Amino acid sequence: MEGRIWPPGLEFDICDVQQCFPTREKQRGEREREKRRERSKRGRKETRKENEERGERKSEWRETGYREEKKETDRRKENEKREKEKRECKERDLVGEEREGSAPQSSGLTLHFTHNHTQHEHLRPAGFTEEKRREEERREEKKRREEEGRREERRRREEERRGEEKRGRGEERRRREEKRGGEERRRREEKRRRGEEGRREEERREERRREKRRERKVREEEKRGEEKREKEERRRKEKRRGEEEKRREEKKRRDERRREEKRGRDQKRRGEDIRKEERRGKRGREEKRRGKKGREEKRRGKKRRREEERRGEEKKRGEEERREKRRGEEEEEKRRVKPSSSRLSLSLGWL
Question: Biased-composition ranges for Basic and acidic residues (predicted)?
């Protein structure tokens, strides 16, 4: 039996085949029932995931179908374009034959073009023989010779016409040459005049450039003088600020020293009073309770004084460094600055 699907060597009759191979509808129904059972087992989450995968597959199939459809559309457009080119080529050939005076062929060869292009071989009918090919080549050769003869005749007539025009225009050419000579003289004169004007204009431009250079140098000198004056003013302000800062620091140190001296005197007086009271034995219980607190306050006071002394030393060091730096800048500026008035007069005199 042709096209059997069971293993070779086993024979089945039609009933066995129907029993062993159920129909397609039964198989589809069984598959659907099996899928429903599987979905009910897996639950909603996996069913949702499966639906998403199926949707992705469908979208992929749809895109593939779109691509295939686009390929088919491009192929159809290309074929239509090719057919259109063939029709236009055929129409041009037929129009050329009518212009030369020969009617289009009607002997079953209407699909064949008059020119011998190999890319149109597929348009020839199946019964096109070698004899017809040679006949067509002879006809094309004849047309080509006739066309060459017509072109030669047109060329000869054109040469004759040009010769007549040339002979007739001789006098006119002589008059035109005389006129051209006068125009040439006028052009030379105009060119010489324009050259002189150009030279004068170039001299004026050069003079303007020199004047601008002089003005620019004067402005630069003035700008340098202004910058120098501003720098001197800044230096004076900085010096005044430094002196004021120094006076303030000195005043703060004097005030701090006075406070320290007063604090020392007060503390000494308190100590003397306490010792006097102790000698007399009149120090109360409250003073004893505050003894520890007093010691803590004394320790904090010593620590604060040491910190203030350290800050004062650092401040003095910083002030000394700033004074040294300012002194170095002033010396450097004195070495760099030169008198500007003589320099300005010299530069203007040189210009």
Answer: 23-37, 47-101, 118-209, 217-248, 257-299, 306-335
